[in-house]
Structure formats: structure tokens, C-alpha cells
Amino acid sequence: MTLNSKWVPMKWPCGPAEFARLKATDADAELMKVAEAWTQPSTLQLLKGTPVNCLVVDWAAGVPWDRAQQLALEPLIHAGRQLGISFVGKVKAGLREDLQAAVAAGRAAGLEAVILTAILDDSESRALGLPVILQQANDNIEWDVTTPIFSATSKVWPGANLKTIDGNTATAGPTVDPWADADSNGCFSLIARQMAPDKTLWLDIDPPWSTDTLSAESYCLAIGDSRVYGSRWIVSLDYRTRAGMLGGDSRAMGAWTRICQTISFFENHADWEAYRPMGSLAVISDFAGENMLMSGAVLTFLNRNQVQLQVFDRTRALAGPDDGPIEGLKGILWMDDAVPTAEQKSRLLAFVKQGGLVIATSYWGPPGVTPQRENWLFGYSIYSVLNGKFVVAENGVIDPNQLARDTHLLVGRRNDLARLYNPGRTNCYSSIHPNHLNQVIQVLNYSTGAASYVTLWVNTRSHSAKLWRPNPQDSLVIDGVPANEGTDFGLPPFSVNCAVEIEKLASL
Amino acid sequence: MTMKCSRREFLGAMGMSAGACIAQPGLIRAQLVPASRVAVGVCPEYNRNVVDVLSTMFDQLGGLEGLVRGKTVAIKLNMTGNATDRLQYLTPEMSHWVHPQVIWATVHLLGNAGAQRIRLLESPWATAEPLQDFMISAGWRPEDFLNAASRVEFENTNYLGNGKTYSTFMVPGGGMMCKGYDLNHSYSECDVFVSLAKLKQHLTTGITLSMKYCFGITPCTIYGDKAPEDEPGLLPLGGRGPFHSGSRLPPKSAPPLVNPNVPKDGGYRVPRVVADLVAARPVHLAVIDGIYTETGGELPYKVGAVIKPAHPGLLVAGRNCVSTDAVAMALMGFDPMAGRGTPPFQTCDNMLALAEQQGVGTRDLRHIEVVGTPITKARFPFPPIVKSSQNRLG
């Protein structure tokens, strides 16, 4: 058995393990009924005709009812496999012996893989006899032990994080006055894509607890916020939605339909996953330990400022003559305090001499250069070297938001690749076909209301583009309006996500 | 065409004013303000015709050469709000910002008239970034302005900028809100100050014309929401909320408020700040872009406002900002003599009246010579501001 990167995973909480979890939270009788019902194979009919093809179930947690859980799941797994559904079991076993026994039981029951939180060496993994999906916390991840499909837990549920200037909560909406940020796991997915290339990240995030049904838009955003940036969210429905689905409630079923449409949208455009991120700025870090914390924060703020960027692993970037991000870049943000290797320095210096910009926390350019300052840029020394510049954050990275804003200005808005007008809480991600045949800009709306009157500007000339939306799934041709060395595309109102595909690129 | 009142009317008005001045000595200065000439031009579109229309209007005002030859000219632009905010799908210059074509034409004509150096100034929202970058983020090409005349410069005046210290402007007569204001050096290092504005309304002050734009010459490092208590901040953070609400005082380094206990009402405070500013930092030339604009407010959207695109097809210019704004108000269908409670001043004091009291200029149309297209032929009535429960504007 091997891991299948085409799996579309969904959590299927049920059985004694779920009863125990619910009892611990004083859940009401209705929720217990939901857990019971979802243990029944008949519930799998809900998946008929949907893109979901892999269920994640609790298999073992090192507790007394593990065996009861496994026995309760066996009919479900059996029925599911008849329907072509794969099962992945979550195993949280403290002891190696328990782990081996639990995995052996899973293999016998028909599991195709297990999700483990314990890091095993290769021989231990092989001895299990089932493929392993290693799960770690996203803020403390060890990249070099990730499995071909790996999972990360996150505390961030994507969506609008509303704050007024004074810090008070404001009304949600696509375009309102208060300053607002949007919570997203997008940058983590971008980092994962670089740090674990050719592997598939499953994001494990449960919806926030609510006494009401979570909106369809909120789920669709969780899907979009992962798929746009190259990862997959393990679909996880709240209890009210699952209860509603059992009873045929129209709101719950409507949400489920929207969720499946959104997943199908990304499945239908799976080719976009092979597209390369576009960006005139490269952010380089080893994304480990403390560096992960700060680099992740800076990336998040750059993303919120709509800066299109590329992420590079410090340990591999610029290592060889053909391996590196130099071409097409205008700026490089060297996040870590560690200085580049001699080879990296050489390439970075060549980049600067040709007009590039390098931002770092210490100066390691050629000696004898006197730093200058800009009156609008506080806390930076600027070293001009031939046609380019080294910019040094004199006190290191103190405020990631300020560094992100300063970086954007230093690289220059003139080098923006894409920009949203009336962005509200929308954001965009640009990627390009490996052979530059077309460019796709995906737009996500993090607010609870529809995005309207959003204009996408791109730095390419195009008379028209294709607009793709999850519902309906077909494309719409939208006209481009020439605008300042690029093109404006007025986007029709959209709920959660859409994508603009531009062919025959004519970059300026 | 002129709109001068008759000698009899003028003398009659003077007689009435004399009585009023005895009762209210503050009005004496108002009556001493100079009568002025204001030009109105019809210009349906933003195209090459803009420069011709403006050229004619400046000639009707007596020409620019005497004003600017060999001088440093500072032009305060209107680029209020975020660069990414738009009214529906309209670019900002088609609704709430002065259009680059009008800026280009003005710079070009000032250059042709012999201006030695022209500085384009604005205080972009909550940022110290170079003004050119702010323009780019709105989709503009700042390099176009560099080609309009020789020695064109840009400066973001929302902070200290290129200066070493702030320049203090004391308000003649002591001021209505503050005794004086600390501003970016560019407002003192100029011989001629031009306000380049948009013809539109304002939710706080009723109208936004050449005077109200001067509200934006105040740096948020001093007058902003997060300015420090003692000295100016390094970076401009937030907006000018304290001017509206009195939520905090300017830093101790700046000239103080005349009376810290004045009402906290923005409709009282902001018109007085504006009147102070145009008295302390006189406007030598006011140009108002009313070719395309919006009705209902000053931004492309605001909670509770109904903003709609509008196309008056007009340009207005004058040497006195109060008189220019008075004519612009008349073109918008409003009475510049209106008091608080009457549109467009339903919830605010009339800043033209306050500036008139400061001796800046007259708002009385009977004392203003209107040249070019008559008001009656160019009038484009703006509806009174209505508030909506909707956030999003249509």
C-alpha cells in the first residue's frame, strides 16, 4: 500500500472514541446521536457523488476503549471500501508495542495508512506495514522528517479577524472602515511547498466551536485557503452541520453541497498545483525553530499586503549556478541571522551589482561601503553597491508587520505583479504555468459577506481573461481595461473564491 | 461674464455689515476681506482639452506669470483615503481624487508661466512612504508629472519628510481651534501655495473644496490618532481623529489649542481647523476638479453614506480659496451663506463663514466676480447628503 496524493481527506468522527470526547465536554444527547449515526455504514451515502474519497478516523489513542473503537469502525471501513473510499486511521500510541499492535489491527481492518504524531525512523516505519502520515504542529515542524503525505495541525481557522483602530470588534463585511486582518494558513502552505517539495500537506484544523451551524462560506474558505496555496484541508464538519445532514436539513445540505462544489473546483483545476508561485520578492529562511516563528509572521504580513512572493529554503537556495531564485527577482529578503555561505554570498552580490535589492539583518556585502539612510525609512542602513542595494535592519526584526511594509516599499510598488482594488478582506495568489503559457491569479475572500466591486490589476497587458468560479464551474470571459502598464479586471461579485486565468502573457 | 453686485447693493450690504460689526467685533475682519475673481470652465472629459480650458481660466484670473515666475510653487493634491479604495469599479480620480490630467495641466501651465520649482504635496493615509509610491499603488504614473514641467518634486507631508524640523504657522488673530500648527517644511519653503481639489461633499464639513483639503496638510505624526504626548512621532499612524473628536491634544511641542474645552463635535471642530489653516497657510491659487466626481461624501464609501458617481464636467479656479469655494458651492446648488442646519451644513458650521471671519476672503457671491461660464449655466446640483444603513455603496 502506498500513500495516494489524490486523496481528498475528510474527518469522520464517530465510535466510542468520539463518545468519550463528547462526554468530556458535557455534550447534549443530540450530539451523542450524531456520533452514533456517523458510525453507521449507511451514513456513507452522504459521500456518494462527492469528491471526498478518503476518511480519517480515530483508530487508537492508548486508552481502554481503543479496541471497542476499532471494532465499531470495522463495518464502516468495510462498507466504505466497497464504495471506493480509503480509510486513514489516527494513532496516538505512547508505547512502540502499542503502536505496532494498533497499526496491525488497522491493517487487518482495511486501513490504508495511519496518521502518527510520533517520529519513527525508516526501519520502524517499514516494520509497521502501513504507510505513515506524520503529523506535527505547524509552528514547531521538523521539515526533514516529513512523510510523502504529511499533516500539520494549526490553531488558525481562516477568516476575517476584525479589529477597529481602537481594537474593538467591528462588523464583518467586504469593505468597511475598520482596519482588518484575515487569518490564513496560506503562508504556512507556501513554506511547506518549498521545505517539503513534491510532498502533500494535509492541514488538520477543526472549525471553531459554535452553538450554531458554521456557514458554508467558512468551510469553503478553509478549503480555498489551503488549496490555493498548495495544501489540502482535512474536511472537518461541526456537529450541527453533521446533525443537519443526517436529518436532511436544507441549510446543512446546502452547505455540504457548497463544500463539495468548492473541492470539485480545485480538483478540476488540479493542474494549477503544478504552477510556480510568482513574485518579484524572494523570502529566504530555514523556517526552523525561532526562524520559523519570525519568518512565518513576516510572510503573513507580506501576504496581507498583497505582496506576491516566492519562498526559498535557506539551506538550498543559491547553492548552485542553476539552483536559485535570482532570475526575475527584484528583491531578496534574507530573514535569518545566519550569514550566507561563500557561494550564496557570491550570487547575492552579483544580484545586487546587477540592480537587485537584498534586505538582511546584518551587512555582509563588500567592505568599505558607507551606509546611507532614507528619511522615510526608519531603522535601516542602505549600502549602495554598483546598481543595487543592501539594506540592513539595524536592530534586527522587531516588528514583522513593519518589516513587511518596508520590504514592500523597498522592492517598490512599481514591481507589484498583482494588486486588488476595493480589496476589503480579499487576497490574491499569483502562479504561472511551468512553461509560461498562462498565469492564474486566485482570489480569496476572507470576510463573511460577498466581495463586490473588486478590481484585479495585473502587470500584464491582456484584452480579456477567463474567470473561474466554483459555482457555476464553467468559465466566464471578462474584459481587461488598460491601466498603468497593466490591466484592470473588474471582478463580478463572488462569495469565497475565484480565479483569473490570463493566457498569452505579455509582461511589461 | 461677471456677477458683480451693483454699487447700491454693495453699499447697502456694507451699511448692514457696519451695524453687525458693532454687535460682533469679530466680523470686522470679515468685512475687510478682498473681493475676488473666480473662473468657471466647462470641460466634459479628461483629455488634452483640460490644459486649454485651465489655461483660459488662468488667463481670466489675470494670468499665472506674475504669481509664479521664478518662484517655488507647492501644490497640495487631494488623494484622500486608501489608494486601493474605489467607488465601484471607478479609479479614484474618476470619483474622489483630483485627476492626474488636471494635475499635469496645472503643473504644465505653472511651468510655462515660469515657476522655478514645483512640489507636489500630499499626506497619504497612515504612511511615510514616498508620494510617488502611493501614486503607483493607486495605479498612477508619477513620472508623467515629472515631464509636465522642469524641477517637479514630490513630498509626503504626513511626517517630517525631507525637512529637519517642522515649520510653525501661527494663526493671525490667535486662531479658532489652535493658536498655530506645525507642518512639513514644504508648506513654508514655497512662495506660492496651490490647493488642487475635487468638487465633492463631505460627511463632516458638508463640502470638500479647496479649503477643506488643507485639513490634510497637518502631519499625523503630530495631529494623528497615535501621536506622542511630548514630541512628534516618527511615523504617521492612523488618521486625524483628534481634530474631529478632541480625543487627545497635539504633542506639547506643537502650538496649543486655543481652548481645550471646546465641544467634541466634529461639525464644530473641523471647520474651525480648516479656517485656521487657510488663514495661517494662505492659498494663493485654488483649482477645483469637477469634471468627474461623486455625490454623497468624500470617500468612495463610508458607513452610513450613499455615494454615487457624478459628472458635472466643470473646472473652477480662483486666487482666493473662500471665494473659489463659494462659487463652487453655488455650482453644486448650495448657498455659501447657509448656516448650520441648512444643506450642505446640516450638522456642521460653515467653514467659509469661519474663514471669512478670519479675514481670508469673502463667500458672498455679490462680491465675487465670476468669469467664464456663468453659474446659472454651469450649475450641477448635488443632492443633500443622506445616510444609509448600508455599508456598501452603489
Fold topology:
The complex is a heterodimer of chains A (508) and B (394).
Chain A: E1 9-11, H1 15-24, H2 29-37, E2 54-60, H3 66-82, E3 86-91, H4 96-109, E4 113-116, H5 122-128, E5 132-137, E6 149-153, E7 159-162, E8 180-183, H6 186-195, E9 200-204, H7 216-227, E10 232-233, H8 239-247, H9 250-268, E11 276-277, E12 281-285, H10 289-304, E13 309-313, E14 331-334, H11 342-353, E15 357-360, E16 380-385, E17 388-393, H12 400-411, E18 418-421, E19 426-432, E20 438-445, E21 454-458, E22 464-468, E23 475-483, E24 486-491, E25 497-503
Parallel strand pairs in A: 1-2, 2-3, 3-4, 4-5, 5-6, 6-9, 9-10, 12-13, 12-14, 14-15, 15-17
Antiparallel strand pairs in A: 7-8, 11-19, 16-17, 18-21, 19-20, 20-25, 21-24, 22-23, 22-25, 23-24
Helix pairs in contact in A: 1-2, 2-8, 6-10, 7-9, 8-9, 10-12
Chain B: H1 7-23, H2 27-31, E1 36-42, H3 49-60, H4 65-68, E2 72-76, H5 100-112, E3 117-122, H6 131-137, H7 143-146, E4 152-156, E5 167-170, E6 180-183, E7 192-198, E8 200-202, E9 206-208, H8 220-223, H9 241-245, H10 266-280, E10 285-290, E11 293-295, E12 308-310, E13 314-318, H11 321-331, H12 351-357, E14 368-372, H13 375-378
Helix pairs in contact in B: 3-5, 10-12
Description:
The complex is a heterodimer of chains A (508) and B (394). With 508 residues, chain A is of the alpha/beta class. Helix content of chain A is 29%, strand content 25%. Chain A has helices at residues 15-24, 29-37, 66-82, 96-109, 122-128, 186-195, 216-227, 239-247, 250-268, 289-304, 342-353, 400-411, and strands at residues 9-11, 54-60, 86-91, 113-116, 132-137, 149-153, 159-162, 180-183, 200-204, 232-233, 276-277, 281-285, 309-313, 331-334, 357-360, 380-385, 388-393, 418-421, 426-432, 438-445, 454-458, 464-468, 475-483, 486-491, 497-503. In chain A, the strands form 4 sheets. In chain A, strands 11-19-20-25-22-23-24-21-18 form a 9-stranded antiparallel sheet. Chain A is globular. With 394 residues, chain B is α/β, with parallel strands linked by helices. Helix content of chain B is 27%, strand content 17%. Chain B contains 13 helices and 14 strands. Chain B has helices spanning 7-23, 27-31, 49-60, 65-68, 100-112, 131-137, 143-146, 220-223, 241-245, 266-280, 321-331, 351-357, 375-378; strands at 36-42, 72-76, 117-122, 152-156, 167-170, 180-183, 192-198, 200-202, 206-208, 285-290, 293-295, 308-310, 314-318, 368-372. In chain B, the strands form 4 sheets. Chain B has an 8-stranded mixed sheet, sandwiched between helices. In chain B, strands 5-6 form a two-stranded antiparallel ribbon. In chain B, helix 5 links the parallel strand 2 (72-76) and strand 3. In chain B, helix 3 (49-60) packs across helix 5 (100-112) and helix 10 packs across helix 12 (351-357). Chain B is globular and about 50 Å long. At the A-B interface, strand 18 of A face helix 6 of B.
